[in-house]
Amino acid sequence: MHVILKLHGVIVGHADLTVRDAVLGLWRGPFRPGLGWELIEPVFDLKSEIAPGAAERFEQARNALRFELTTNDGTALALDGLDIGTERRGEQTVPVELFVRFTRADV
């Protein structure tokens, strides 16, 4: 399922959720950043910090973001959780995968 991730109407990225883990209740798939990625990149940079409290700061910052997830036709999808898997490449954090837990299990 192709989805579009937005933050306050700005496209942060796109993903093709191709893998469903019924046990964990998660969907995941490759994530391609959009022009709005730079708006949230500092939050996901916190994931790679080793400093004390960085994990808690990341969780708080990510949970404060009001992500919107829609299908290609604009249908809004209700979320219970969302994360973006990243990799560190030199000084840059690169998003690689989107993880989503939907409110309804039948999505």
Short précis:
The protein has 107 residues and is an alpha+beta fold. It contains 2 helices and 8 strands; from the N terminus they run E-E-E-E-H-H-E-E-E-E. Strands 1, 2, 3, 4, 5, 6, 7 and 8 form an 8-stranded antiparallel β-sheet that branches.
Envelope shape = globular
Low-pLDDT sequence parts: none
Task: Indicate the structural class.
Answer: alpha+beta
> How many H/I helical runs?
2
The helix content is: 10-25%
Order of helix and strand elements from N to C terminus: EEEEHHEEEE
β-strand percent reads over 45%
Tally of DSSP β-strands: 8
| Arithmetic mean pLDDT | 89
Main sheet, how many strands, which sense, barrel? 8 strands, antiparallel
Task: Characterise this structure.
The model has no long low-confidence stretch (mean pLDDT 89). The protein has helices spanning 37-45, 54-64, and strands at residues 2-7, 10-16, 19-21, 26-33, 67-71, 76-77, 79-89, 92-102. It has 107 residues and is of the alpha+beta class. The protein has 2 helices and 8 strands; from the N terminus they run ββββααββββ. Strands 1, 2, 3, 4, 5, 6, 7 and 8 form an 8-stranded antiparallel β-sheet that branches.
